[in-house]
Design a protein that fits this description.
Number of strands: 13
Largest sheet: 5 strands, antiparallel
Strand order of the largest sheet: 4-5-6-7-8
Distance between the termini: 101 Å
Structural class: alpha+beta
Number of helices: 16
Order of helices and strands: HHHHEHHEEEEHHEEEEHEEEHHHEHHHH
Helix content: 40-55%
Strand content: 15-25%
Radius of gyration: 34 Å
Shape: flat
C-alpha cells in the first residue's frame, strides 16, 4: 500500500486550490454572462442562499441562449440521447478470422452498457457536463450506486468544487473535491465510513447540520486511492483502493503549460461583454427618452422635496432661466448615444459562430435533404477541430472504460479482453463521427467503380468480401447481421455443390440415347 498521509493530501490540495484561484476572475465572468444559473463563483457556496437571482447584471441573453445551444448541439452530435453513440470493436491483436465472432460478443456488451446508462440518467449528466465544457472545464463522477434500478450513478460535479493535478502525459491523475453534506446522511452515503467520537459529539444535537468534507482521489505507484476527510481538523473518514479512476475531467481546449481548459465562451467573452454593456446603455438611454429628467426651481412655491415625478426624477436648481425661468422644465439632453456605430448584430453573429449556433438552417426555412445535413455535420466536425478529438479522448473513452469496469466489478458482464485499443477499441458511431466516415466510404466505392471499368484485370485489385467488411465497420453495422468466415466458407461450398449438381443435371439431359433404343 502506498497511500499518502492526510497531511500530505491536504498540503497538495491547498497548492492545487491556490493554482485554480488564478482562473477565478476569468471563469467568474464567463459563468455570470453565459451560464448564470450554474454560477457558483458569486458567493453561493460560502453563503448558501438558494433561490438567489443570478442574472442581475445580464442585459443581453445572446450568450446564454447560444451556450445552451452549444451543449445541445454537441450532445445530439456526439452523445445523442437514448441512442448508442459508440461501439466496442475488436482491435488489431484479434485475428481477422475471429473478428465477426468477437464483434457479436462485444455488441452484446455494448447493448448492456447503454441499457445501464439509459437507466441510470447518463443523458442528464452529460448534458450538464457539456454546459460546463462550453466555459472550458467539465467534471463527471461515475460511481456504483448500490441500487438495482439505477446500478451506476453519473454525477456532473460543478467545476467550482473541483481542483486537480496533472500526471504523466498530461493525464488527470489526482482530483480534489470540497463539498458539504448533512451529517446524518454520511453513514448512508458511505457505508464504510468511520466517524471519530469527537466529530460525532459535535453534531449529535444538530444532526442535519452540514459538515464540510474534502474528497481526494489520486494515483500513486500504479494504484488508485480514495480518501474522504473533514476540512476542519485532520480526521480521515473513508479510505479505499479503487480498481479504476472514477473522475472524468474534460477540457475543451488547453493552452501549453496550463491544466484548466478554455472553452468557446472564453473566446467570445470580449464580444459578450461588449454586447451586454451596449444593451445596458441602450436601455438607460431609452428610459431617459421615455421618462426624462427635470429641473425644479426652489422658489418657495414649488418644493422639490414634496413632489414625486415618475418615471423621471427632479433636480433642484437655483434658476431655470431669467428671471429664474419656469418653475419646472425638462433637462436638456446632451444627445443620444450613436448606437449605429456599434454593430450589435455583427457582435451577436460572432458570438453565435464561436458557440456553433449557426450550423443548421433556421426552423422557418424549407426542409433540408439528408445529404445537406450530412455535409453540415462534416462542417461542424471541421469547426470543432482539435476539440473534437479531445472530447473523444477525455470524455468518450474514459466514460466507456469506467462504466465497463464498474459493470465488471458488479458481475453484470465478464469482459475477458482489455479496452486498450489493441484488444478492444471504442469506435464512435454518433452522427458527427459517422459523417466523417462517409468520405472514406465514398473513396472505396469510387475505386471499385474504377476497377470495374478496367475489366477483369481491374476487378482482381479488390476483394469484395473485405470491401463489405470495411464499409460495415465504417457504418457501425452490428456483428449479429454479418456472416463469419466459417459461415461464408460454408455458403460458398453450398453454392459450389449446387452449381455442380446443376451441371450434372444439365449434362444428363444432354446425353445421347443408347444405340438400338427407339421411342415407342
Amino acid at each position: 500500500m502506498a497511500e499518502l498521509p492526510l497531511k500530505e493530501i491536504k498540503k497538495r490540495f491547498k497548492a492545487a486550490e491556490t493554482h485554480k484561484e488564478h482562473w477565478r476572475s476569468e471563469y467568474e465572468q464567463a459563468y455570470e454572462f453565459a451560464l448564470p444559473m450554474r454560477n457558483l463563483y458569486d458567493g453561493f457556496y460560502e453563503a448558501e442562499t438558494p433561490g438567489t437571482r443570478k442574472n442581475k447584471r445580464v442585459f443581453d441573453s445572446t450568450a446564454i441562449h447560444s451556450t445552451a445551444r452549444f451543449a445541445n448541439r454537441i450532445q445530439s452530435s456526439l452523445f445523442p440521447p437514448q441512442r448508442n453513440w459508440c461501439r466496442l470493436a475488436p482491435g488489431n491483436r484479434i485475428p481477422q478470422e475471429q473478428h465477426i465472432e468477437t464483434q457479436r460478443v462485444l455488441d452484446f456488451y455494448s447493448e448492456t452498457m447503454f441499457g445501464v446508462m439509459r437507466q441510470s440518467g447518463f443523458d442528464l449528466a452529460i448534458g450538464e457536463m457539456l454546459l460546463d465544457l462550453a466555459i472550458g472545464t467539465a467534471c463527471m463522477l461515475i460511481q456504483p450506486s448500490g441500487d438495482d434500478t439505477k446500478p451506476i450513478k453519473f454525477t456532473c460535479v460543478p467545476a467550482y468544487h473541483v481542483c486537480f493535478e496533472e500526471g504523466p502525459n498530461g493525464q488527470i491523475n489526482t482530483v480534489y473535491r470540497k463539498f458539504r453534506r448533512p451529517f446524518n446522511v454520511l453513514e448512508r452515503e458511505f457505508p464504510d465510513i468511520k466517524i471519530p467520537s469527537e466529530v460525532a459529539k459535535k453534531y449529535e444535537e444538530k444532526p442535519t447540520q452540514k459538515i464540510e468534507l474534502l474528497e481526494a482521489t489520486y494515483e500513486n505507484n500504479g494504484f488508485i486511492y480514495y480518501c474522504l476527510s473533514t476540512m476542519e481538523g485532520d480526521h480521515k473518514l473513508v479510505s479505499r483502493q479503487l480498481q479504476s479512476f472514477p473522475w472524468i475531467v474534460a477540457r475543451y481546449m488547453k493552452a501549453s503549460g496550463e491544466i484548466y481548459g478554455r472553452g468557446p465562451v472564453l473566446y467570445a467573452l470580449p464580444d459578450i461583454l461588449t454586447v451586454n454593456k451596449v444593451k445596458e446603455l441602450a436601455l438607460k438611454n431609452a428610459s431617459l427618452s421615455i421618462g426624462g429628467v427635470f429641473t425644479a426651481v426652489d422658489d418657495g412655491v414649488l418644493n422639490p422635496q414634496t413632489i414625486n415625478i415618475q418615471p423621471g426624477s427632479v433636480i433642484a436648481v437655483n434658476s431655470n432661466g431669467g428671471p429664474r425661468g419656469a418653475s419646472l422644465m425638462p433637462l436638456p439632453r446632451s444627445g443620444d448615444a450613436n448606437l449605429s456605430q456599434i454593430e450589435l448584430n455583427d457582435l451577436r453573429m460572432n458570438i453565435k459562430k464561436m458557440l456553433l449556433d449557426d450550423s443548421l438552417p433556421p426552423d422557418t426555412m424549407s426542409a433540408r435533404s439528408a445529404t445537406e445535413i450530412m455535409e453540415r455535420m462534416k462542417d461542424l466536425s471541421a469547426n470543432l477541430g482539435a476539440a473534437f478529438g479531445r472530447m473523444i479522448d477525455e470524455i468518450m473513452y474514459p466514460i466507456v472504460g469506467r462504466t465497463l469496469a464498474i459493470m465488471n466489478e458488479m458481475g453484470m458482464i465478464e469482459l475477458p479482453l482489455k479496452v486498450n485499443g489493441l484488444e478492444v477499441q471504442v469506435i464512435p458511431v454518433s452522427p458527427l463521427a459517422l459523417a466523417g466516415n462517409t468520405d472514406n466510404i465514398n473513396s472505396v466505392m469510387q475505386f471499385m467503380q474504377i476497377t470495374q471499368a478496367m475489366g477483369p484485370q481491374g476487378q482482381m485489385l479488390v476483394d469484395p468480401m473485405k470491401v463489405g467488411d470495411y464499409v460495415a465497420d465504417m457504418l457501425g453495422i452490428p456483428g449479429e447481421v454479418r456472416t463469419t468466415q466459417e459461415e461464408r466458407q460454408a455458403m460458398q461450398q453450398e453454392m459450389m455443390q449446387a452449381a455442380q449438381a446443376m451441371m450434372q443435371q444439365q449434362q444428363g439431359m444432354a446425353a445421347p440415347a443408347p444405340e438400338g433404343q427407339t421411342d415407342g
